[in-house]
Amino acid sequence: MARLDTKGAELQEERSAALQHGRNPDVPEKKPPGPFDEALREAASRTPLPRAPEPTVPGDLHQQLEVFRVRLRELWLLPRIQDRMKQIAAETEARERDNVKRFGGVVKRTEAVLMEHWEQSFVDSVNYILKVRPFPGETKRDPYRPKRDHLLAKLQAEETKLVKSAPADLVAQVEALRRSFKEKWQQEVDLAMDRFITLASNEAQFATVRQAAQPVEIYGLPEYLEGTVPASAHPDTVAGEPVAPSVVVFMKAVQRESGLKALASNYPGHERSNPWVGNIEGIGKYSFDVHLDWLIKKNAEGFYEREPIIKFFLAVDRASKATKIAWAAIYNDFEVAKKVNETLGSRRIYFSGGRDGPGGPGSIHHGPEPYLLHIHFNVMPNDLSAQYFAGKNVDMPHLDMGGPR
After folding, report:
1. How far apart are CA 317 and CA 320, in angstroms?
2. How far does the chain reach from its first CA to its final CA, in angstroms?
3. What percentage of the chain carries pLDDT values higher than 90?
4. Who's near 228: CB < 8 A, 6+ residues apart?
5. Which pLDDT tens digit goes with each residue over 327-386?
6. Dihedral sign, Cα of residue 237, residue 270, residue 150, residue 371
7. Cα–Cα distance measured from residue 206 to residue 202, given in angstroms and rounded to the nearest whole number
8. By C-alpha distance, which of 280, 286, 283 is closest to 222?
9. Which one, of 176, 177, 212, lies nearest residue 346 by Cα?
């Protein structure tokens, strides 16, 4: 015999009764307040009292580190940073839309896309410059350290002196000392933020301002074509790691044409981050950096002064013609790049900044200071490139074979 299921009927009766008394059966009844509910509501409505400041402890490492604390995402959200970056992003989107209207294509660099890109680039770049990248100290005996670590070491040294001297107002003097270092640190932070804005503005111009110059590409040739020479064999032209012999020839001509004793500086694996042909394990040493900090002054934007650096690049091109060694460079001042490129009719200067590199996120920059102001060069000997590509069925975009210019 089947058992009757009375549960459904009971529920239906309860719903009918609730409706007869003007109550919605689908809404839970409010429970009467418990003995602690009123106290909880009152506590939640109150603004929490600020914590008492931590007592100053002279020589305390944790407190010293707090002087140099920086919250990168909060810096990005500062109104002055947001306002300027949004302005640059909007101007960039407008240029891109105009380019698409005139020349075709698709609008990719919208304000939203750019702001998302620059947020991560800002965080990575500012962090790298302030807390990761080693810089020289104030004296030759100072070790290379990140900017924060330089200031921390100096604060610790001065605070240690105070502790040893044990003045009656030791705590007051330590607090004043920390405030002065916090101001110095803030100056470094402000500089990194402001110069990132300059970096982003130049990146946007490289991407969307059209230049009356044809693009060229320099590809790293295999090392076996001419081998390498140690920097020690050519201290007047090369520093650091070995380079291809053509680099020495090229830099000697650059020095003659420019009148500047510029050196080609190289480090391990430098060539692997650039266009190359052949086997990556056998790329020749045709990539190098040139630092002109002691030869050309810097302007208010953190780049090399424009007139002398333009003259330098034009001297580089004369050296290229004299040696029959093609060149391309990375340098982030768009005004300089456009002037040089359009003068030569070839787009030989490009942008690179805010990318991941050997030093980690945000470690690749080419100006403005403090974003690793320098020039990166790639060179390719015309005769060796002609020899290498002879008979090869290859399609290398914008390959510069060193033809008549």
Report:
1. 5
2. 105
3. 80
4. 242, 243, 244, 245, 284, 285
5. 999 999 999 999 999 999 999 999 999 999 888 999 999 999 999 999 999 999 999 999
6. positive
7. 6
8. 283
9. 212
